[in-house]
Amino acid sequence: MSEEPSDFIRQRILKDIEDEVITGGVVTRFPPEPNGYLHIGHAKSICLNFGVAEEFGGATFLRFDDTNPLQESDEYVAAIQRDVAWLGFDWGDRLTHASDYFEQLYQFAVQLIEKDKAYVCGLSGDEIRKSRGTLTAPGTNSPDRDRPVAESLQLFERMRNGDFADGAHVLRAKIDMASPNMHMRDPVLYRIRHASHQRTGDSWVIYPMYDYTHCICDALEGVTHSLCTLEFQDHRPLYDWVLDNININFHPPQIEFSRLGLEYTVMSKRLLRQLVENGVVEGWDDPRMPTLAGLRRRGVTPSAIREFCRRIGVTKQDNLVELNLFEFCIRQDLEGTVKRGMGVLDPLKVTITNHSSVPETLSAPWHPQREALGSREIPFGAELFIEREDFAEVPPKKYKRLSPGEMVRLRYAYIIRCDEVIKDATGEIVELRCTYFPDSRSGSDTSGLKPKGVVHWVSACAALPVRIRLYDRLFSVPNPKDLNRDLNPNSLTERQGFVEPAIVESEDKHFQFERLGYFCKDNVLPGVVNRTVSLRDSWKP
User: Fold this and answer.
1) DSSP string of 293-361?
2) pLDDT bucket at 357, cuts 50 / 70 / 90
3) With contact defined as beta carbons under 8 Å apart, do 397 and 443 qualify?
4) Could you tell me if residue 182 is left (phi over 0), alpha (psi between -120 and 50 degrees) or otherwise beta?
5) What is the pLDDT of residues 52-107, one digit of tens each?
6) Which long-range contacts (CB under 8 A, 24 or more apart) does 246-250 make?
7) Does 38 reside within a domain?
């Protein structure tokens, strides 16, 4: 690396290279459990693990922690691979599964029993929890802790053979029931699960725990730096204990970093699964979800997510990142690349009384500062739609949009003046009758008129109807604690709007609707346009 390392992990890797602690290249791993979809918190870990390996010319394993068949599925495996690839990372031939090592894991457990470092315990789950003690009181030994080695070996083999029901026995490490670290109080290494596994079928009925599995997999795969989030810091002594007590010739260091917390959402697959299963959202890819699938459908780009992860950095301090920073990264990424068109979310009809019934065609650039994006044709006729909020019958002070007797410019078109307001029987405004000035055409204006402002519009004769989904924050408070109480009831609103035909005809997915925000075409629901993010300081649900 030519630049000074930007965080403590990169500094550690650089030092290990300089000290020749590692000589065969940097190896990292991203080890998701296939029990749900990845979210933006995982993106931080993905970017870190794959990023540092790329920077130091190393490699990264995508390893599935598939040790709990009750919650895992092929759907989640496929979704995780899709999301990691979408972010722009390539694992090459390093796609592995914990289940690839089930036999080796079993044999290492046998070694621990033979060394009297593990024993088969017949206590129930509740009994084990009660016997562990508290943070201030030591635990109590299991009555099976001093079971003879030969007996534990025989029972463990019978566990593997399926001779016992779920919960009848577990394999526990024999460490220290008085340890100040609760994870070291004879933790469970194996449990019985009579459930079919998505890869191994019914070959196994005992499954290893994560704390036992991932350190061994790290060692078998030659991982040089096992990067975990801070909640695993207290698990590190167990990580080291397992590797120190089996016959394996490699011992990776576990290094912890802070996990990502983002305002107005939750970063837990368990809680996100509740939202899906309870019907609060429409699925794992609902654009309100912080999942990578949801963000992708909403129109957030991989480069925006990677930039966000770069900006928040890697530290040892947990914190709640402001949503504004994420939205800034999204806008910054889209600003320089997407076309700008016109759409109307809440249409108000405008009739140009002095225009002929023959439509005309205007030309406009797709972006005022990006000539490379080209231009498009915009139909203009006697009937238009403008945004309802761009008209005020009784305008406030310094109002710069349309009002009775006042003028505005239609973007890329003409200046118009409001002459008459038409209302229905309830008093709601249903139409504006206006005059346009033919010599005020944008780019060749010779009228000398001074309009108050500029508004966007679409031609009624050519505009295409679309369902527009406006997404707000999923929760109403920055740090939600209660999934029901803290939900934002207005996280999704729908409008029946109109867009200029060039937007629908374009193969581009992303657009900025002038003055409204960034939008994208939904890749699941035909005819639906999702708002990706509002313009700066203009969030409107």
Assistant:
1) HHHHHHT--HHHHHHHHHHH---SS-EEE-HHHHHHHHHHHHHTTSEEE-EESSEEEEEETTS-SS-EE
2) confident
3) no
4) alpha
5) 999 999 999 999 999 999 999 999 999 999 999 999 999 999 999 999 999 999 99
6) 246/108, 246/111, 246/112, 246/216, 247/108, 247/111, 248/108, 248/216, 248/219, 248/220, 250/219, 250/220, 250/222
7) yes
Q: How many Cβ atoms sit within 10 Å of the Cβ of residue 400? A: 14
Check the CA dihedral 171-173-176-180 and report its sign.
negative
Q: Are residues 266 and 191 in the same domain?
A: no
360 is catalytic: no
Calpha distance 4→291 (Å, rounded)? 33
Evaluate whether residue 125 is within a structural domain.
yes
339 is an active site residue? no
For position 4, what pLDDT does the model report?
A: 54
Query: What DSSP state is assigned to residue 463?
Result: -
CATH number at residue 46: 3.40.50.620
Structural domain ending residue among the three candidates 311, 335, 359: 335
Active site residue 259: yes
Question: By C-alpha distance, which of 396, 426, 425, 401 is closest to 350?
Answer: 401
Number of domains composing the chain: 3
Single out the catalytic residue among 174, 269, 296, 306: 269
pTM recorded for the entire structure: 0.93
Domain holding 323, by residue range, is 261-335
499 in a domain, yes or no? no
Q: Report the alpha-carbon angle 517-522-523, nearest 5.
A: 145
Q: Answer yes or no: do 252 and 266 share one domain.
A: no
Please identify, among 214, 242, 260, the residue that sits at the C-terminal boundary of a domain.
Answer: 260
Verify that 183 and 120 share a domain, yes or no: yes
User: Predicted confidence band at 5 (pLDDT cuts at 50, 70, 90)?
Assistant: low
Rg (CA), the chain: 31
Provide the token pair at 460.
Answer: 């009624």
514, part of any domain: no
User: Which of the residues 259, 310, 349, 495 is marked catalytic?
Assistant: 259
Q: Is 536 left (phi over 0), alpha (psi -120 to 50) or beta?
A: beta
Give the three-state DSSP class for 212. Answer: helix
Q: How many whole angstroms separate alpha carbon 433 and alpha carbon 417?
A: 9
CA torsion 173-178-179-183 (nearest 10°) is: 50
| Together in a domain, 234 and 295 | no
Number of H helices and number of E strands within the chain? 13, 27
* Percent of the chain whose predicted confidence (pLDDT) is above 90: 93
Taking the C-alpha atoms of residue 346 and residue 495, their distance in angstroms, rounded to an integer, is 7
Tens of pLDDT along 434-460?
A: 999 999 999 999 999 999 999 999 999
CA distance 107 to 5: 40
Q: What's the mean per-residue pLDDT of the chain?
A: 95
Residues 278, 249 share a domain: no
* Torsion region of 350: left, alpha or beta (phi above 0 gives left; psi -120 to 50 gives alpha): beta
